[in-house]
Specification:
Keywords: Membrane, Transmembrane, Transmembrane helix. The protein has one helix at about 5-30; strands spanning about 55-65, 70-75, 75-80, 90, 100-105, 110-115, 120-125, 125, 130-135, 140, 145-150. The protein has one helix and eleven strands.
Length: about 150
């Protein structure tokens, strides 16, 4: 090979490496930046509750990306599912059951209950069997939707 061809290949390889690092940085940036809260009650994944009582627990959607930042306030109980009689309606996720899970306030804290859903519910990546208490920072996954307890 000629020296000119080797130089062109070196430059091409260097450009590909820079593009790769740029893509990695973009992916990291999009994951760590603070999500903008969407207005509850609009579009898919809407919430029925709008007021935020003092001391109430707040759940924020982490995944999927198109619903990231939506917030739901837990005052007494929140039901999660695909049909309209749920408090958190996620009708664009085919892995969520009609009545998938319920998050409720009890005297001993906040609990999540799987409602015998087909694909199950997960807390911090572990499959939920029955019910489990959750606290700030815990992540609840129903279908491909992940909610994080913020307060």
């Amino acid at each position: 090979m000629t020296d000119q061809l080797l130089t062109v290949l070196k430059i091409l390889l260097l450009a590909l490496i820079y593009l790769f690092f740029a893509r990695v940085l973009w992916a990291v940036w999009s994951e760590v930046r603070t999500p903008v809260a969407a207005t509850p009650g609009t579009g898919k994944g809407r919430a029925k509750k709008k007021s935020v009582p003092k001391g109430a627990s707040v759940f924020v959607v982490i995944e999927p990306k198109q619903h990231r930042g939506r917030t739901y306030t837990l005052s007494n109980a929140l039901s999660i599912g695909r049909v309209d009689d749920n408090d958190i309606i996620i009708d664009d996720d085919t892995f969520i059951s009609s009545h998938h899970a319920r998050i409720e306030v009890r005297p001993e804290g906040v609990w999540v209950v799987d409602l015998k859903s087909t694909n199950g519910s997960f807390v911090n990546g572990q499959r939920l069997t029955g019910e489990r208490s959750v606290r700030k920072g815990d992540r609840i996954q129903v279908g491909s939707t992940v909610l994080e307890m913020r307060s």
